[in-house]
């Protein structure tokens, strides 16, 4: 999948125009820490805006300069420090790690043969004791679909990549979702081992 080309052509069918209710709920109930937050494959960056707060440094990365432009146009001003970097997640090497990483529609967007590299990058980027939150979509258990993106995903599949290094904290069946995604989302929280 050529993401830069897709963005340049303005073909972004995944773009729901706002953050998923599950993220807003996490934020509202204080489950997102302060500190450094990363959103890989952040697209238009709605989730950066939802996570922005004066005591957070929020970093979004995406391959596409057009995605960054869409973010800048949508959010000229946000509280705290919010940085949007045009970068490849797999080679992204910031000076410091992150306390919370939010993955929504990123894992499922990657080719299946990139999943081991996704895990290696997460192990490198999440600070010991930090949280990785994966909002899994489209959730299937068992997996029946064989095409993507979005590639069908489930907890056992993600666990098989992250289990050496992340402790599984909780899986939640998500009630409120974007229209059309009802019943197809699970929120799974993982803690990076010390
Ligand atoms: C399915 S879209 C989801 C965007 C956003 N999370 C949303 O929900 O609107 C996947 C995004 O990941 C970006 N992407 C794909 N591979 C990437 C990589 N290796 N590094 C950074 N971003 C990447 C794409 O450009 C695209 O914006």
CATH architecture: 3-Layer(aba) Sandwich
Q: Helix/strand-derived class?
A: alpha/beta
Rg value:
15 Å
- Described by the principal axes of the CA atoms, the overall outline is globular
Bound molecules: S-adenosylmethionine
CATH topology descriptor: Rossmann fold
Task: Give the CATH superfamily.
Answer: Vaccinia Virus protein VP39
Strand order of the largest sheet: 3-2-1-4-5-7-6
Strand content: 25-35%
Mean pLDDT across the residues is 97
Give the strand tally: 7
Helix content: 25-40%
Main beta-sheet annotation? 7 strands, mixed
CATH top-level class: Alpha Beta
Low-confidence stretches: none
List the helices and strands in order.
Answer: HHEHEHEEHEHEE
Spatial gap, N to C terminus: 35 Å
Structure, described:
The protein has 194 residues and is of the alpha/beta class. The protein has one domain (3-9, 19-192): Vaccinia Virus protein VP39 (Rossmann fold), CATH 3.40.50.150. Helix content is 25%, strand content 27%. It has helices spanning 3-8, 21-28, 46-51, 65-74, 115-125, 155-162, and strands spanning 35-40, 56-62, 81-86, 98-104, 126-136, 166-173, 186-192. It has a 7-stranded mixed β-sheet. Helix 4 (65-74) links the parallel strand 2 and strand 3 (81-86). It binds S-adenosylmethionine. S-adenosylmethionine binds at residues 3, 14-15, 40-44, 61-64, 67, 88-90, 104-106, 109.
